[in-house]
Structure formats: C-alpha cells, structure tokens
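Lab channel / #folding
Pinned by the channel admin:
"Please post every new chain as: sequence first, then the structure tokens as a reply. Keep commentary short and put observations after the output so the thread stays searchable."

First post following the new format, from NK:
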Amino acid sequence: MTDNTINKVMTLKEAVSRFVHDGDELVVGNYTVATPFNQIMEVVRQEKKNLTVYTQSGVFDVEMLIAGECVDRIVTTYNIRSGGRGGGSMCERYQTAGKIQVEDYSNFTYNARLTAGALGYSFMPVLPGIMATDVFKVRDFMGESKFGVVECPFTGKDIPVVPAANPDVCIVHVHRADKYGNAQYWGAKGSVAWACLASKNIIVSCEELVDTEIINASPEYTILPSFRVNAVVEESFGAHPAELVGYYNMDQLFYIEMDVANASDTGLRKWMDEWVYPIPDRNTYIERYISKYGLERLKQIKAQTYYSAPVNQGAAFYSNWREDGKSVGLGLTLDEIEKVMEEKGLMIDV
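Reply from TO:
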C-alpha cells in the first residue's frame, strides 16, 4: 500500500519505468472499453520482456505487446483471432509457433481469480458446470494449478476452485483522478475494479486530473482509493482508439487500419514503427493523428452530452451539539460527560 497523502502524478514514461519490470505479471485492468492503449504503447516502447499478461478482452493491446516481444504467457478469456488459424492475429501466429503460452478461462472463472486475489483468499469456488468443458480439461503452463477440486463441507459434492490471482502490476485508464490516486470510473465496469484491487501495484492514467473535492462530491464513482495507487498520469485520449463513455467513441476507421496491418507480423510492426516507437507521449500521438487525418475526424468521435438524472446527496447538517457546547440529549459539555462516565466507572483507557 502507498501513502494516501503523496502527490503521485508523474509522466507515463516514469510510471512504467518504475512499476513494470521484466518477468512481471501484468493485468490490463479495463474490460472491452477504455483500453489503456497509452500505457500498452509505453510498455512496448520500453521493451519490457517475459511478461505474463492477464486480460479479459485482449484485442490490439495484447497484439502490440506480442509484436513488441514483451509477452511469454497470456491468461485470458478472449483474445482476437481475426483471420482464424490462417493468420490475422499475432496471438494465433505466436501460439501456433510455440512462442507464447496461453491459458484459457471463462469470464466467470477469470473474474473469480481476481476477486479471490482482491479479497485476500487463496482460492475461490466456481460453478461446477465448468468441469464439463475444455476450459477445465485443457491445461497449458498452469497445469494442475489451473483448477482444483474440493469437497463441499455441507453437501459432500465436488466443487471446482480457481487459485487467487495477484498480478504484479495493473494498468488502467479512467475518467478522472486526483493527484493522490483516488480514481473514478463509470459506465460498463466489468472486471475493472477487481483487476486493480487484486494487483500489487497500480498505474492509473486519466482523462482529467481534478481536485479531491470533486472526487469527494461523487464517491460512488470512485473505484480505487488513493492508498492502493502507485502512479497517476494525466493523458487525454489515453484509451484511443478504444472508447470512453462521456468522452469519445471507438475510432472504427483507425481500428480497421490496425486490423489490416495485423494480417501479418511485418504489417503490424510497420504500423507500430509509425504509431508506437517514435511517439514519446499521448500529446505527440494526437498531434500525429490530426496531422494525418485532420481535426474534424477526431471531433467526429467526441461523445455527445448525455447526463444521468441528478442525485440529491444533501443532509440537514443537524448537530447533536448546541452552540453553547452542550449535548442536545444530555445538556452536558463533553468534559462534563467524561466526568460522569469516570465517576460511574464507564471510562475505558485505550
């Protein structure tokens, strides 16, 4: 855990350098939306090696990590396989060639591992139906550790269990955060919070850096408390070309170009030579995008305003203490109350 009174704002380059190391288990916190492409690209630029990547919805983020020779192992419920076994996916090509290992879970069993890790359990029971599937039967690098079976102490039936997952670092992109690391995210959450809270270290990038007072005004959107976060990075369009509700839609044309490039190893790496390796930060990335495609194309994906109904979180601000310092209920000051309690032997020294 980290100090919740420290300013944790830093550049993405510094955050990845400090908290992502060769051989780490790295979990991509976002699920299907708000993919932290800015952080993925920085991991590739820093040439991190031998990573075990956890992802519930791997698409071009994982493809880039594989193309950058960053990945040895993947734990996933899904990774893009466009083009099928004939090609179109770095994951497919590398797995077929024996260059990476992939352990498949269902959405529920994957999340159960993260939930167990976040709650401090060593394992988590899952639904018994999984034992009839190849997800349970087929094992890769985890072998017998992928699933276990225990006897239910109440029914005597066999119950499948999964081991807790506690990745070394989680990378996640959110809507807003304060400088201490209190991070807010809304929309479809999926496994976002569990992926973060199960991890030993968390790098948060955000669209906006805001005052703590704004965070406190809507606490229900806070998915991460400051004491769990190691680094905060402010980078608008950090999830592009993925979408972030309230900010921008998926850039479908850009995704299509990535998909075409991904049809071959050389094609994706050529694309990365333009969009990843020479780009030092997200501002430069957006400047290049505008230079190549124009500002209007970027404006087309900007989210339109659609507010939820306001919620009244006010209170009467009624106090149990009068202006003269006496209790409303007892008519005594705090010192007088303590004296009475001491006389009656009710005071406890802690």
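NK: The mean pLDDT is 94.
TO: also worth noting, DSSP finds 13 helices and twelve strands in the chain.
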